[in-house]
Write a structure and sequence with these properties.
Structural class: alpha+beta
Strand order of the largest sheet: 3-4-5-7-6
CATH topology of the largest domain: Heat Shock Protein 90
Number of helices: 10
Distance between the termini: 47 Å
Low-confidence stretches: none
CATH superfamily of the largest domain: Histidine kinase-like ATPase, C-terminal domain
Helix content: 55-70%
CATH architecture of the largest domain: 2-Layer Sandwich
Oligomer: single chain
CATH class of the largest domain: Alpha Beta
Radius of gyration: 34 Å
Number of domains: 2
Largest sheet: 5 strands, mixed
Length: 350
């Protein structure tokens, strides 16, 4: 039941009760000798006994609509402010309210908004300091990434290439012992697909060899360089829209690593034909969106068991942002990161 409907019902009931009480008091003070007078006497051509309740109901409806619209505006104002808090924006819900209780709610929402902003500033500042501290460890991190890559290449790509080699040996044997051309064609197709998948996985794993920090490059330059290089090596259609705007170093680093992880997952698992990347800034929000048209996956299961997905969520939280993933089977996957930009922090956004 809406606020207006509830107020109309309450006011109708209240008006009818008031009318009955007043009528009862009037009859007690001035007793009526002939009750038929209530029906015989008219007001605006309406019997008096009908006019009183009808007038009470009309007044109740009018007052209910007015009060319902008033309270609906109050609730909409609170809802709008809470929505702004959810999006990481300043509420702007600090104007003087006509009701003491609503003013208290406005002050509480504004206080929560300031606390969230301060926490986001602190998170971004800590992220920037964390990246600066890691500069001295870049060589060690690169070496660890290379060792991890070697293990993954051995466990995945090497095994697939070995399987392809065995399949090719089977093809040669089949060609010598029979003329089953359809069987050979299927085997050759399987080999082709395995080798193609191995190449994609190899390129995805090589993404992890990139240094953690964007040395002497902005986030926009790093994204464009990564996607241009990738588009030259894979058959996937890659499109991007990257706007140029200043960001703290910590935010740039975390967004770039999220992009790397997401693109790596797309190459290894999605079987996508198209990939789109968007980086824009709207209303003090930085938005990074990666969309593919692959096979999709179960988001809930992936969150529970994927280290990569958990890592991306943690990176988004470290800079005070949010990460949402929407995936539909056979339709594709959309990953979106939103990070609020603090104007009074200690970074480039001062």
């Amino acid at each position: 039941m809406s606020t207006i409907q509830r107020q109309v019902i309450w006011n109708i009931g209240f008006s009818v009760i008031i009318a009955l009480v007043v009528a009862a008091a009037f009859i007690i003070v001035f007793p009526i000798a002939d009750w038929s007078e209530l029906w015989n006497r008219h007001f605006m051509d309406i019997p008096f006994v009908v006019f009183i309740p009808a007038f009470s109901i009309a007044i109740g409806i009018l007052l209910g609509i007015i009060s319902g619209m008033f309270w609906r505006r109050q609730f909409q104002s609170v809802e709008h402010s809470l929505h702004q808090l959810e999006q990481g924006k300043q509420t702007g819900f600090v104007e003087k309210q006509s009701i003491t209780e609503m003013q208290g709610i406005a002050e509480q929402i504004d206080k929560i908004g300031r606390q969230i902003s301060e926490q986001a500033k602190l998170s971004q500042r800590l992220a920037t300091e964390k990246v600066e501290d890691q500069e001295a460890r870049i060589q060690e991190i690169i070496e660890q990434e290379r060792n991890r890559l070697a293990r993954e290449l051995h466990d995945s790509v090497s095994q697939q290439l070995f399987a392809a080699s065995m399949m090719m040996s089977a093809i040669n044997t089949t060609k010598q012992s029979s003329n089953e051309e359809d069987r050979e064609a299927k085997q050759l197709k399987m080999v082709e697909e395995m080798i193609h998948q191995s190449q994609l996985e190899m390129r995805a794993l090589l993404l992890h060899l990139r240094p953690v920090a964007l040395k002497n490059k902005t986030l926009q330059e790093g994204i464009e360089e990564l996607l241009i290089e990738l588009s030259q090596k894979v058959t996937m259609e890659i499109k991007w829209k990257v706007e140029a705007f200043p960001l703290d170093k910590g935010i740039e680093d975390h967004l770039f690593r999220i992009l790397q992880e997401s693109v790596s997952n797309t190459l290894r698992h999605s079987k996508a034909i198209k990939l789109e990347v968007l980086l824009i800034k709207r209303d003090d929000l930085v938005i990074l969106r990666i969309v593919d048209d692959g096979i999709g996956f179960e988001v809930d299961n992936m969150k529970a068991g994927s280290y990569g997905m958990q890592n991306m969520h943690e990176r988004a939280l470290e800079v005070g942002g949010t990460l949402k993933v929407i995936s539909v089977k056979s339709k594709g996957t959309r990953l979106e990161v939103k990070v609020p930009v603090m104007k009074n922090g200690d970074g480039v956004n001062d």
